[in-house]
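User: Working on a comparison across species. This one is Acyl-CoA thioester hydrolase from Chryseobacterium contaminans. Can you predict its structure so I can line it up against the others?
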Amino acid sequence: MSLVYEKQIKITEQHIDQNNHVNNVQYVHWVEEVAAEHWDLLKHKTEYENDVWMLLDHHIRYKKQVYLNDVITVKTYPQDPEGAKQPRKVEFYCNDELVVDSSTLWILFDTEAKKIKRLENDWLERLVLKID
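Assistant: Here's the predicted structure for Acyl-CoA thioester hydrolase from Chryseobacterium contaminans:
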C-alpha cells in the first residue's frame, strides 16, 4: 500500500452538464469521495480509526475539459502536515494529461470528544512505516 491512491472513472451521462463536458461540481464530489476512500484504506493502521476528516479549504484549477466516455485517473495523496491542518492533493488525468488539479486542507475531528484533533508532525512518516 502507498500514500498515493489511484482510481479510474469512466465518464457517463450523469457526469455531463449542459455544455457537454464534465460538470465542474462533479470534480468537487470526486475530491471528497477519493479522499474518503483513501482514508478508509489507511485508518485501520492508525490510532485515528474512529475519527473523521472534515474539509476546511478547497482550491481547484480546471485545465482542460473531459467528455462523455473518457476515462480519467484520479490520484490523491497527503502532503506534509501544517499543525492541525492536513493538506491533500487530488489530481485528475485524462490520457496521461493533468486536466484538473485540486489542493485541499482537512482537519481531523475526534467524534467522541467532538473537537479537532491535532496530529503529530511525523504522523505520516509513522503511517508509512506501518503500511510498508
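For your comparison, note: The mean pLDDT is 92.

User: Helpful, thanks.
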